[in-house]
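Continuing the batch. This is chain 6 of the set; chains 1 through 5 are on the previous pages. Same settings as before, nothing changed between runs. Recording input and output for traceability.
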Amino acid sequence: MTGDPKQLSCAEFQAQLPELIGAGGDPSTHPHLQHCPLCRALLSDLETIAEAARKLFPSVEPPDELWEQIESAIKREEEQEIHSR
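Output for chain 6:
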């Protein structure tokens, strides 16, 4: 791999892409994309796919009392274990 990000081959850039995306940054600002329409198109396609996937499973917030119910259930199970010994 070369030291200059603009000089990365497409294969080198695409190998780094999962890490760039996973790091939470904006991979669209990577210098390689300034000079590579193929990788810009790939990134655009990946963003379109990711957005469509997010729409398949909408985010649902659990009710506020859920953690309290879970904690109570755990405590009840622990108490039952202690009493059954």
